[in-house]
Amino acid sequence: MGELKRILISGASIAGPALAYWLQTYGYEVTIVERAPALRRGGYGVDVRGAAISVLQRMGILDQVRAADTGMTGVYFVDSHGRIKGRISEAGMGNRPELDIEVMRDDLTDILYRLTKDTVHYIWNDSITAIQETEEGTEVHFAHGKPQTFDLVVGADGLHSHVRRLTFGDEAQFKRTLGCYISIFTTRNDLHLKHCQQLYTIPGKTVGLYSARDNSEAKGMFIFKSAPLQYDRHDSEAQKQLAADQFSRETGWETQRLLHAMKEAEDFYFDEICQIHMPAWSKGRVALVGDAAYGPSPLSGQGTSLALVGAYVLAGELKRAQGDYTKAFAAYEQEMRQFVEKNQKIGLTAAGGMVASSSFQITLQSWMLRIPFVMNAMFHMISNSIAKAASVIELKRY
Ligand SMILES: Cc1cc2nc3c(=O)[nH]c(=O)nc-3n(C[C@H](O)[C@H](O)[C@H](O)COP(=O)(O)OP(=O)(O)OC[C@H]3O[C@@H](n4cnc5c(N)ncnc54)[C@H](O)[C@@H]3O)c2cc1C
After folding, report:
1. Virtual CA dihedral for 290, 308, 107, 39, nearest 10 degrees?
2. What percent of the chain is modeled with pLDDT above 70?
3. How many Å apart are CA 342 and CA 315, to the nearest integer?
4. Please, which pLDDT band fits residue 299 given cuts at 50, 70 and 90?
5. 3-state SS record for 186-203
6. CA of 157 to the centre of ligand 1 (A)
7. Are 267 and 241 in contact (CB under 8 A)?
8. Could you tell which of 13, 72, 276 is best to mutate to test the pocket of ligand 1, judged by most ligand atoms within 8 Å of the CB?
9. Is 184 near ligand 1, meaning CB less than 6 Å away?
10. Residue 45: inside a domain, yes or no?
């Protein structure tokens, strides 16, 4: 097997730029193609924990990311009049103070982009349309650019990965739906929340508001349970309408004001809450990393950590295998598989608790919230299992 030089990555969010950083450090020539015209904005805070903290440290950006920590202090559950029914601290949510980091997703993508923009070739506003293996490598066709040959192609293009579809087939084979949809958008912090989040829960639905960027703005959120919905993933207006239809009759708390804010919002993230489970993360000269390969769902709070660790391990194993990509891809899977499975389990558990389906479940929840001892014991257990899963991989030095 000859020397590998040119690697193409699809997707410039977390997994893509993190992988690119390591590959260029090891001497590869790296290109990233991103479908959006620029880095995508939006999203809530994402968590970085356990082994992923060590990855940030090895990348030399731990202090920068820590400096961007959201400083959130906890989540408050409110009733339809906005009265507080209970609180869970950040520690209760699984974040260990001084150790784990919560950072706005787009602050982290900014940091990763700045770290790689001078050494990695970024192509914006384009997408791969075909990947063909040839004697010399892979011939890649793009929607706009000219075809090019690369030694390897990596899909870091998220839950609905296009590279995965081209290489492994239809998404339905790998997607495990968790039965909910989520919508997130930026709005004004009209409730003057200070480094905290408020959640209003009704049967099958949750409405949230989360203070962001030092309380100067907020992120609104709608989560709802639903049977699979058919919609165009590139049509934000239609997605806003889908979310709005679910909450149109709900008058409690800030629901109506937030529905209006969602309509006006410039950044808008909408997706089905689902996981990706694949028997293999590579085929020939194509591999997958991050959500594309093993998305654990936003409910696990571990998507970003898995992406950072996966990028580190994949690049490291490519370096170690010295051109034998088959060996490198196999080692990447072997190192990551158990870590991925443990973290995906957290997403499955959380999916059961995040959106209460019945009034009885909500009554039970609010009763538990009034008994700090029960609440603390429950969240202590959850946070321990998250901390354990986040560190269940021993990172090699490559
Ligand atoms: C706008 C946005 C908001 C998010 N908000 C949250 C949140 O609030 N909470 C949470 O837990 N997780 C959120 N996520 C998901 C979170 O970023 C991931 O779970 C995690 O960080 C792993 O990242 P990833 O790089 O593997 O995938 P992603 O972050 O999903 O990134 C995939 C990237 O690939 C690009 N892409 C997609 N298709 C193509 C294509 N055909 N060609 C080229 N590029 C393509 C996308 O535009 C995106 O930039 C969000 C993702 C996005 C894109």
Report:
1. -40
2. 89
3. 22
4. confident
5. EECCCCCCCCEEEEEEEC
6. 7
7. no
8. 13
9. yes
10. yes
3-state secondary structure at position 361: helix
Contact predicate 157/276, CB 8 Å: no
Domain assignment present for residue 217? The answer is: no
- On whether residue 145 sits in a domain, the answer given is yes
Mean pLDDT confidence for 343-367 = 68
164 lines ligand 1 (CB under 6 A): no
Range of the domain at 22: 6-72+101-174+276-352+376-390
pLDDT, tens only, 162-185: 999 999 999 999 999 988 999 999
The amino acid sitting at 239 is: Q
* Domains of the chain: total: 1
Question: Helix, strand, coil proportions of the chain in percent (round to 5)?
Answer: 40, 25, 35
- At 156, which CATH number? 3.50.50.60
Q: Ligand 1 centre from 13 Cα, in Å?
A: 6
- 81-95, 176-190, 250-264, 278-292, range with the lowest pLDDT: 81-95
The first and second tokens of residue 234, run together, are: 């590139």
CB-ligand 1 contact for 40 (6 Å cutoff):
yes
- For ligand 1, whether the C-beta of 33 sits within 6 Å is yes
154: closest CA among 377, 386, 314? 314
The lowest-confidence range among 126-140, 293-307, 337-351 is 337-351
pLDDT tens, 92-112?
666 666 788 999 999 999 999
Q: Is residue 232 included in any domain, yes or no?
A: no
Q: Which ligand 1 atom minimizes the distance to the CA of 36? A: 47
- Report field, pTM of the whole predicted structure over 0.70: yes
In testing the pocket of ligand 1, which one of 157, 164, 219, 221 has its CB within 8 Å of the most ligand atoms? 157
**Region at 108 (left for phi over 0; alpha for psi -120 to 50; beta for the rest):** alpha
* CB crowding 83-115: b at 16 or more within 10 Å, else e: eebbbbbbbbbbbeeeebbbbbbbbbbebbbeb
Among 291, 280, 300, 312, smallest CA distance to 389 is for 300
